[in-house]
Amino acid sequence: MASAVVCAVLVGLLHLSCASQSDPVPEDVSFTLFSRSNRNDGVDIHYTDTSLDPFFDGTRRTVAIAHGFQEDGYNSVWMNAVKDLVLDVIDANVIRVNFKTLAAAPRYDLAAADTSFIGKELASLLNDLKRRGGLSPSEVHLIGFSLGAQVMGVAGHNFKTVDRITGLDPAYPLFGEAPLQDRLDPSDASFVDVIHTNSGPLLTGHLSFLDPVGHVDFYPCGGHDQRGCPKLIDEVLENLADLTLDDIDACSHSRAPEYFIQSLSANDFLGFKCASYEDFERGDCLSVTNTLGWYVDRNNEGTFYMDTLTGAPFVALQATATLTVGSTEAHGDLFLRVKISGMEDNECQILNGWERERIQPGSVRTHIVPVPQNGGITSTQVELEYVVNDLWIGSNSYSIEIASVDVDTYGSHSCVVSSATLQNGVPRTFSPSAGSC
């Protein structure tokens, strides 16, 4: 097993520290400047330069971007996409932070320890640009993914006071118990927003902070496992001896920069302010919204939840499906799957067969269902499947009568089905129609 994984497992289970020093030097960190004048031909800059690069303009907003473990900033697809989109949106100085040697596998523990050095190097550059180039801290936005989010926290802590830090699924192993000066927290900038896409324990295949670490924290799909990504808990537990960090749910982890990239193109990636993902899934808190990513409302603090589609474009309308049970009681699971051409089914579980009591005739259940922005639920097919829990077998348990399934998309109603019987384990597909059931 790679030493990085051994270290991270010990940290996650025992709260031990196994970080050591790699003796980084300034040459291990490079900074490349882009602007609208040289968006495809970046120039390397450093705080030891004898003259200020003419492409830097201190009157513009400055956006710095930092990558994560095992990444190379020069060849990072997501970093280049963010750079290009930022320059499309605003006239900015964009600085790409590259520390690929320090982020190289397999020693995650060393890479984590070196984030403090990298962050301080970036702070030195920002101080130099402030002194010589007129950079204003109130016009600095730092964006970091995974380890890069922790780098930006250190930079913000050492360069007072940057306007904004965006943390894209901040790395958790070796940072959970770290002092605040060594990790991202709300004091590192005037405003800190965070996107959690792979949060939870390492042994269940998760890599980032579950608790809020910003002024605004977004939890797409609950912040754990993203729709369309594999759930790796079984693979992690069965193959722990052969595990590498490449195996630990890179899909969900990397969704954070993907969502941020999509947010730069539109300001409609809405999250809903809720006390928990479970409250959101029941549709209990759909009144207060904020926009994930670039266009976030910094005056609307708190934790926000949303569901996404299983594939790009990920942004979905958050529809509320209301199930009314017919004349039979039930004690099984009922799954609703929105079928969209070209992507995996978008599934939700409307009934949970492990509820304490049987689901009585006429019972009503609600659940959030992500549907496409273009066309909504009526542009899809919807599959319903009833699955009986064998421990609760009784009269009429092998089927369920559905009185109706109605979908409310921000006040616009559609009917998935009005009156149907579902047999155990036999999916049925319906074509939703406009109007209430």
Automatic annotation (TrEMBL):
<dbReference type="InterPro" id="IPR016272">
    <property type="entry name" value="Lipase_LIPH"/>
</dbReference>
<dbReference type="GO" id="GO:0046872">
    <property type="term" value="F:metal ion binding"/>
</dbReference>
<protein>
    <recommendedName>
        <fullName>Lipase domain-containing protein</fullName>
    </recommendedName>
</protein>
<dbReference type="GO" id="GO:0052689">
    <property type="term" value="F:carboxylic ester hydrolase activity"/>
</dbReference>
<feature type="signal peptide">
    <location>
        <begin position="1"/>
        <end position="19"/>
    </location>
</feature>
<keyword id="KW-0106">Calcium</keyword>
<dbReference type="InterPro" id="IPR029058">
    <property type="entry name" value="AB_hydrolase_fold"/>
</dbReference>
<feature type="binding site">
    <location>
        <position position="188"/>
    </location>
    <ligand>
        <name>Ca(2+)</name>
    </ligand>
</feature>
<feature type="domain" description="Lipase">
    <location>
        <begin position="23"/>
        <end position="314"/>
    </location>
</feature>
<dbReference type="InterPro" id="IPR000734">
    <property type="entry name" value="TAG_lipase"/>
</dbReference>
<keyword id="KW-0479">Metal-binding</keyword>
<dbReference type="GO" id="GO:0016298">
    <property type="term" value="F:lipase activity"/>
</dbReference>
<feature type="binding site">
    <location>
        <position position="183"/>
    </location>
    <ligand>
        <name>Ca(2+)</name>
    </ligand>
</feature>
<dbReference type="GO" id="GO:0005615">
    <property type="term" value="C:extracellular space"/>
</dbReference>
<dbReference type="GO" id="GO:0016042">
    <property type="term" value="P:lipid catabolic process"/>
</dbReference>
<feature type="binding site">
    <location>
        <position position="185"/>
    </location>
    <ligand>
        <name>Ca(2+)</name>
    </ligand>
</feature>
<keyword id="KW-0732">Signal</keyword>
<feature type="active site" description="Nucleophile">
    <location>
        <position position="146"/>
    </location>
</feature>
<keyword id="KW-0964">Secreted</keyword>
<dbReference type="InterPro" id="IPR013818">
    <property type="entry name" value="Lipase"/>
</dbReference>
<dbReference type="InterPro" id="IPR033906">
    <property type="entry name" value="Lipase_N"/>
</dbReference>
<feature type="active site" description="Charge relay system">
    <location>
        <position position="253"/>
    </location>
</feature>
<dbReference type="Pfam" id="PF00151">
    <property type="entry name" value="Lipase"/>
</dbReference>
<feature type="active site" description="Nucleophile">
    <location>
        <position position="169"/>
    </location>
</feature>
<comment type="similarity">
    <text>Belongs to the AB hydrolase superfamily. Lipase family.</text>
</comment>
